[in-house]
Amino acid sequence: MLHASARSRTRRLSGVAALIAAAAIALTGCTAPAADTEQDPGAATGVTIEHAHGTTVIPEKPKRIVALGWMTPDIVAALGENPVGIEEVWGADESGYLPWFNEYVTEQYGETPEIIPYAKEGPNFEGIKALKPDLILGLYTGITDVEYERLSEIAPTVPYINGPWDPSTWEEMTRTVGKAMWEEERAEELVTETEELVSSLAEAHPEFSGKTFVWGLTMPEGSTDLGVYLDYDPRVRITESLGFTSTSAMDSFHQSAEGDNWYTGVSLEKLYDVEADVFAAWGASKAEATATVENKIVSKWNPIANGAYVIYNNQAEAAAISSPTVLSLQYILPKYVEDLSAALQGKPTNSNE
User: Fold this and answer.
1) How far is 199 from 337, CA to CA, in rounded Å?
2) What is the C-alpha to C-alpha distance for residues 219 and 226, in angstroms, rounded to an integer?
3) Contact 275, 248 (CB under 8 A)
4) Domains, the chain
5) How sure is the predictor about 353, in pLDDT bands with cuts at 50, 70 and 90?
6) Mapping DSSP to helix (H, G, I), strand (E, B) and coil, where does residue 294 land?
7) In this predicted model, what pLDDT tens digit does every residue of 222-257 receive, in sequence order?
8) Can you tell me whether residue 65 is helix, strand or coil?
C-alpha cells in the first residue's frame, strides 16, 4: 500500500487534487476496451459514440471543439482543428499550455486556444458555453453524470468511455476522438505514424532488449515505501514497446494493488527482492529525487547503485510520458530513449524542475 503522503504526491500528476491517486497522467494506466463508435447504421444524421454516461450523437463534422482535461487537446489539434477552448492542466508552462501543444498549434494555426477559467468545482459551464462549441470532448476527465447532462445542453458531449480518469490507451483515445471529429482515417494514420516512431527508436537501441525495469515515483519525506506502476500504466507500456521487459516482480505488484488502481507501493524492506536493470520515475522536485536515490536503502538497490535510473522532475517531461499522445510522444520519446540508453551505461538522469 502506498504511504498516505505518497498517495498525495501521485494525485498531483493527474492535475486534479481530488483524483483518487497515482498520476494518471497519467495518466491513468488502466487499459480499457475500445469505445463503441460505430456509424449509426440507419442514420445519415451523424455518428454515435457509446460511453459511460450513455450515447452521444454528433450530427455533422464539428468545427468548434472544446477539449477538456488531458490528452484530448493534443489529438484534436493533430486531427486538423485548433480547439476553441481548453483547460490548463498539470505540466503547463507559464503560458498556460503544455509546450508541445503550444508549439504545434502556433505553427499550424497561428494562434492558441482560449484557456477556460478555472471553476472551483467541475467544468466551467459558463465559460464553455461562451465559446459556442459544437462538440465538447472530455475523455480524460472525471465528468459526472450530472455534469455530463449540463454540458450536453451546451453541445454534444463525449466524456470518458469506461470510467473517470480512464482514457484507455493513447491509440484507442486517438481513434475515439477521430470518430467524434469525423476523421477516422486521419486518426488511424496518426496512430500508425506514432507506432512507427516507437518502433524505429526501439530498433535504434538494441541494448534495451532483455533489460528489466520498474516505473515509479520518488518518495516524499518520511515515506517507507516506493511507489511503482503496474503493467497497464501508459509509462510502463511505452517502455515495454521500446524493447524493455517489466520486472519479474510485477505479479507481486498486482497482488498488493488495491481495487482497480494502476499503482502500488513496495515496502523498502522488500525493495531488494525487486529485480530491475533500470528505474524510471517522475518526481515532485529534484531535491526529493536526490533524497530518494540517496536513501540508505534505496541507494543500495541494483538500478540505483549502478546509476541506472531516469527521473523526470520537470513537469512537462513527466506529463508527456505519463499521458502520452500523438504529439507528446514526439516531444518526449527521443529524449527518453537517450536517457534510458545512458542509464544502462551508468549515467543517470535527474532532471531539473
Assistant:
1) 12
2) 6
3) yes
4) 47-195 (3.40.50.1980), 204-350 (3.40.50.1980)
5) low
6) coil
7) 999 999 999 988 899 999 999 999 999 999 999 988
8) strand
